[in-house]
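Researcher: Sequence recovery benchmark, item below. Answer with residues only.
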């Protein structure tokens, strides 16, 4: 049986460095493999040793600066203020947050990508109307890319630009200035972000350019797609004999240029010139002989349900001493999957997303209610919203009060309910249907709801770790939003709700079991 990649890495580390590995740094692209390599190192050495230091790539690069990492929301508010300053200098009206938000995320993403790939800022945003200038400036682009750029700018080279085209060109001219102002703002606030760290290090102006020298050797394990900044730094550190690289490759997809799986690895090894410490790529996939079972189901949820029987019938796997994995191509199936699994230890690497939890459903319901009663100033709203509240597991309204409300609504055949007549006093959220006084009260009211829910969960006496973690993370994000909103004056309830939903969407709670044994669920 072939050895696992990380087992080979552990054996090679022992062969190269012996027991003296305490001042070595081992860097991964994410945290998950660290546990596995630690186990393999223990097995290989077979005795107590001083452990090397483990980092994710971002944790490792963060060692080069003492500045605070600016959150995504903080960067957004900086960008908004700076953009309006530029508009004022141009003699134009400032944009509202509602107007600017749709493009702010794109601008921040573009700034980050330009930094990671070390693109000259002035060059990428310059006006290009003349096709000859395009040919000269972008001669290193492929023919297809040059044609695309010519077609793009051709629509702006005609006389009599439309208002949209003129606005776009004005923004295009503004972006290099905005980029520089944004970087200055981060510097003034003693803050940074990862794209800035990467670019500064790659271009030789990092705050602590020689931070890698604190380690005897840095080992990079399992990397695939590299940004231009990473590739340059890795190559430099290899030439200075400060870094060693372990790539998880197989000849099946590395040697065959048609195989997409080997695209970035071929680039790392043959173009960038990084050396794989494990030597030639083995041809394990091409020589493997294993069974693959296909199961026909009538839908996605049926796939998740089918796994219950499959796992119970896998007599060959000892989940207490071995590990097996479920790969979710569609991560939205996590909840139906968890509901279908037999009783066993699991470890979920993707975490449990807030957006799929009952907590998010409750916040979403409250926001919808507030759009009716606070934003649109209506005295009634659809009965279905009240029924959803009554049926929600976290509201904990008394059975007696729930039945009374449902009975009255049925007798009166209500399609809409009056706010003044709603009484949910027995619920843990008795003020759920109370209108907020003004838009500034939106987030503070949500925070108070979170505090009530946290208290309700703790009073149950059972451990509700996942729900508590989700609520705590949600409160953190809402407080960050509130700080940003305070500086901006009046914002409509509907816009705030839209931004809140965007900010809450990425939140998830880790569900961690034993990563070495049992069932691993991955995205």
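Model:
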């Amino acid at each position: 049986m072939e050895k696992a990649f990380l087992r080979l890495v552990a054996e090679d580390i022992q062969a190269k460095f012996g027991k003296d590995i305490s001042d070595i740094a081992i860097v991964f692209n994410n945290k998950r493999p660290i546990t596995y390599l630690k186990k393999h190192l223990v097995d290989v050495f077979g005795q107590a040793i001083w452990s090397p230091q483990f980092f994710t790539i971002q944790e490792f690069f963060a060692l080069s600066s003492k500045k605070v990492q600016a959150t995504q929301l903080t960067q957004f508010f900086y960008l908004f203020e700076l953009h309006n300053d530029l508009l004022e200098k141009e003699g134009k009206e400032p944009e509202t947050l509602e107007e600017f938000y749709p493009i702010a995320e794109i601008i921040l993403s573009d700034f980050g990508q330009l930094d990671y790939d070390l693109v000259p800022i002035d060059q990428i945003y310059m006006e290009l109307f003349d096709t000859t200038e395009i040919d000269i400036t972008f001669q290193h682009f492929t023919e297809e890319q040059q044609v695309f750029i010519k077609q793009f700018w051709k629509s702006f080279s005609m006389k009599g630009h439309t208002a949209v085209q003129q606005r776009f060109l004005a923004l295009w001219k503004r972006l290099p200035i905005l980029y520089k102002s944004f970087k200055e703002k981060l510097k003034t606030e003693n803050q940074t972000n990862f794209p800035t760290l990467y670019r500064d290090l790659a271009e030789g102006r990092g705050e602590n350019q020689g931070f890698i020298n604190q380690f005897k050797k840095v080992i990079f394990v399992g990397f695939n797609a590299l940004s231009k900044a990473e590739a340059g730094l890795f190559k430099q550190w290899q030439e200075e004999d400060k870094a060693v690289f372990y790539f998880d490759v197989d000849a099946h997809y590395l040697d065959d240029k048609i195989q997409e799986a080997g695209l970035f690895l071929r680039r790392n090894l043959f173009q960038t010139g990084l050396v794989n410490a494990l030597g030639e790529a083995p041809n394990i996939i091409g020589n493997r002989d294993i069974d693959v079972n296909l199961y026909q189901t009538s839908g996605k949820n049926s796939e998740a349900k089918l796994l219950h029987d499959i796992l119970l019938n896998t007599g060959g796997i000892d989940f207490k001493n071995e590990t097996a994995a479920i790969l979710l191509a569609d991560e939205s199936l996590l909840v139906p999957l968890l509901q279908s699994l037999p009783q066993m230890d699991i470890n979920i690497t993707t975490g449990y997303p807030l957006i799929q939890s009952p907590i998010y459903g409750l916040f979403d319901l409250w926001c919808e209610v507030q759009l009716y009663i606070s934003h649109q100033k209506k005295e009634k709203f659809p009965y279905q919203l009240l029924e959803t509240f009554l049926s929600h597991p976290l509201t904990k309204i008394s059975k007696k009060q729930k039945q009374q409300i449902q009975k009255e609504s049925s007798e009166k055949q209500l399609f809409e309910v009056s706010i003044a007549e709603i009484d949910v006093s027995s619920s843990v959220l008795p003020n759920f249907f109370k209108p907020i006084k003004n838009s500034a009260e939106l987030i503070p009211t949500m925070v108070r709801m979170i505090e009530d829910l946290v208290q309700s969960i703790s009073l149950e006496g059972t451990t509700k770790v996942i729900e508590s973690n989700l609520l705590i993370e949600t409160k953190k994000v809402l407080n960050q939003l509130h700080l940003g909103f305070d500086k901006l004056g009046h914002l409509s309830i509907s816009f705030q709700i839209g931004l809140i939903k965007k900010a809450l969407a990425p939140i998830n709670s880790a569900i961690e079991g034993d990563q070495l044994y049992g069932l691993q669920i991955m995205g």
